[in-house]
């Protein structure tokens, strides 16, 4: 029996194969695997990463029929997407489907219970305590994900356009936009950003952190608003009674000095990789079944 | 010599043909004509509306070569789109290209100078005084268009999701969302709204106005924020020295009671249709050329 863990992401996905004793036999990499952005591509990327991991482990493709797979994929908490993924004619002996958020939380705590705040391109909070999983946020762009890079980038672009029209004053953040886009023409900036998704907005988040260091009051207000949300998120997660609290994602370092001192002080490091946590979950799932 | 005016919009476009004396000879209707959403379709819709108007006027297609056309199209203030439209091998004796906003402003004041606040799906302010046109806003969704329906809908959905997670209190606006979407499942609402454009968000604006009537404090705060922006926009437009100020667009009636009393009191009605204003501009353009 083999155990396959997959962490599906918007730009790439990672797979890991382990044995009964939890030893890693092989790892693999695949393309974008967010079923929200295309079911076919997500499934193809997942299988590509798994084949890569099989090869790395020196296993034949038929090993799949003797494997339990656990996939952590974005959006599978949405009923329609969950139905579609579960209808997949997969090649495994068993398939366990969870969200990428669940995997991230399990990974932060080495497969055990705990809570995690995620702030990268998107944001959310997840607590897993016993059989209870609680999720806050993870609502996506542009309507949700407060405290994320995409949210911060959208707030910043909104500010820039109002400043350009003279509705609010122009400070360091305004200048940072012009430097970043190498133009002082707001229409040219709009042309670049029109129709763009969360990643393009998240790329603007660093302008806000940099401008706050230069005492830009608008940047500081945005960061205080975002940090206040993340503090409240931490409070909500802690009320679920997790043994550990972790923060992961590309903006973790940036937010640290803006968080309430008591929250920042109790953040502990993430322990293992998401795909390793997924493989552990596949293993646990197999034992649950045989128990 | 004939004069053709076209008002291009995101869902349809209207054409009007007039003669030397400004008499309307025919009108026509075409499909979506926003070149931001597709250049080919915009040009096809414009030509379809014009052919329709030619037919209505009892004119042959070759009359086009003796016509001056004025097109009011969204996005032609963006350099790349303007270049592309100007490269069009059009069939007219002359082509005058202006934004849909310019046409809206001219229409509000019967072809004369003035200023206009637009609040429908999007928002902006335009002042035309002599040869000087000043535009505020018109930045699009989701980064701009404060005080528009799409902006209000986005603010409302953001509020709903925060309330659903327990970060802010649930009032009339929260309940209005559940009634509107006929579900109390936030994930189902996200599934409906994910990837949607400005029109889908603008359709939520009425929930905010209705909830404010029921004294929902979050709805009231959003409307005060939007109205404050529109007041400042009016102040900026009035500083351009326009002889008249008008407000047009689907939310005009809704905003009226929220605007500062001195602003609301000086709003005057729009005078002619945008396509008629475009035909007038074509006429004026011809006289400028021959002068």
Give a structural overview.
2 copies of one chain form a homodimer. Chain A is α/β, with parallel strands linked by helices. Chain A folds into 2 domains: 2-111 and 271-290, ATPase, nucleotide binding domain (Nucleotidyltransferase, domain 5, 2-Layer Sandwich); 113-270, Nucleotidyltransferase, domain 5 (2-Layer Sandwich). Chain A is 46% helix and 20% strand. In chain A, the strands form 2 sheets. Chain A has a 5-stranded mixed sheet with strand order 3-2-1-4-5. The longest helix of chain A is centred in the C-terminal third of the chain and has 22 residues, at 217-238. The two termini of chain A are 16 Å apart. At the A-B interface, helix 4, helix 6 and helix 9 of A face helix 4, helix 6 and helix 9 of B.
């Amino acid at each position: 029996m083999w155990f396959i863990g997959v962490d599906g992401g918007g730009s790439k996905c990672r797979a890991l194969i382990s044995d009964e004793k939890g030893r890693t036999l092989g790892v693999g990499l695949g393309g974008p695997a967010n079923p929200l952005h295309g079911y076919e591509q997500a499934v193809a990327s997942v299988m590509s990463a798994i084949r890569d991991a099989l090869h790395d482990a020196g296993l034949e493709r038929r090993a799949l029929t003797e494997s339990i797979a656990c996939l952590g994929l974005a959006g599978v908490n949405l009923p329609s997407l969950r139905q579609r993924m579960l209808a997949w004619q997969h090649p495994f002996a068993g398939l366990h489907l969870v969200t990428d958020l669940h995997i991230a939380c399990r990974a932060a705590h080495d497969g055990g219970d705990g809570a995690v705040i995620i702030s990268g391109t998107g944001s959310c909070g997840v607590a897993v305590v016993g059989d209870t999983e609680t999720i806050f946020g993870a609502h996506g762009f542009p309507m949700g994900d407060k405290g994320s890079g995409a949210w911060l980038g959208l707030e910043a672009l909104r500010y820039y356009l109002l400043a350009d029209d003279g509705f609010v004053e122009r400070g360091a953040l305004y200048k940072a936009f012009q430097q970043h886009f190498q133009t002082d023409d707001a229409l040219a900036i709009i042309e670049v950003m029109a129709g763009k998704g969360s990643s393009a907005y998240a790329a603007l988040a660093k302008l806000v952190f940099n401008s706050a260091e230069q005492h830009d009051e608008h940047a500081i207000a945005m960061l205080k608003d975002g940090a206040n949300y993340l503090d409240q998120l931490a409070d909500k997660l802690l009320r679920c009674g997790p043994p550990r609290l972790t923060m992961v994602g590309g903006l973790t370092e940036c937010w640290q000095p803006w968080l309430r001192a008591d929250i920042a002080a109790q953040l502990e490091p993430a322990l293992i990789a998401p795909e390793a946590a997924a493989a552990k979950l596949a293993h646990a799932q197999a034992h649950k079944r045989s128990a």
